[in-house]
Amino acid sequence: MSHAEQPRSDAELAEETDRIVAFWTELSLPGLFDVHTHFMPKNVMDKVWSYFDSAGPLTGSVWPISYRYAEDRRLQVIRGFGVRKFTSMIYPHKPSMAAWLNSWGADFAARTPDCLQTATFYPEDGATEYVEQALTNGARIFKSHIQVGNYAPNDPLLDGVWGALSDAEVPVVIHCGSGPAPGTHTGPGPIAELLQRFPRLPLIIAHMGMPEYVEFLDLADRYENVRLDTTMAFTDFSEAGAPFPRHELPRLVDLQNRILFGSDFPNIPYPYLDALHAVRRLDLGDDWVRAVCWGNGAALFG
Description:
Layout: H1 10-26, E1 32-33, H2 42-53, H3 71-80, E2 83-87, H4 98-111, E3 115-116, E4 118-120, H5 127-136, E5 141-145, H6 146-149, H7 159-168, E6 172-175, H8 188-197, E7 203-205, H9 213-222, E8 226-229, H10 236-239, H11 249-254, E9 259-260, H12 272-280, H13 286-301
Parallel strand pairs: 1-2, 2-3, 4-5, 5-6, 6-7, 7-8, 8-9
Helix pairs in contact: 4-5, 5-7
């Protein structure tokens, strides 16, 4: 626990849980579908938390982890919120790590049936083979973190990966926007190039492409298999530094069926409820909120 962080009381968590359940109950939903949650091997999660604690260069500020619990407790919390389906967003920051993470992700999904089996990759020899193996083993969703991995999405070592995922029609949640800080390979340009080469590739642009919202919405307009997730977008936390342009709200209605709710649980510096309120207060209508928080994920993943 970082010095800047106070553990949340059981009473606070219970109150938040009640309010989250009320949120989706009032919308007549069966629960929530969250496409962007992090479950990782403990040693990897500990390193991620340590990075946030140290105000790492990408964040540049204190970032309290709101749900810093052991894995079993985190599962209990998110299920209590009514999240019926979620993911275990895993990603490597160096070679010779992805295949091991994929093995862990398969094991985690096997013992956690409400988690979509998640896999990942890195530009390295053998990437195509272990991605194909992950698909054979039942992976439903992949994670690509251009920023942390510091790799070019158009690296030739990934050509076979993109081809396999495109053919399998298995989505990739890709952190490719330049928030919270630009990376060597972030931004819409490399993704536009990637989609020119693989126009059927099912990408889910993490964080609505923050802060390049408009350019990533343009790509969603152009390519029918491009979706966006709401992770951290529209919240007070993100609006302070990277506000979503209000004149673009009608485009969110036009793309209603391709926007998916994501939270970044547990690694968020605010309550989970904030993410739901952020989606609702866009004032795009209950049908839009229902599609984003449940229907689109359920339709995409069956």
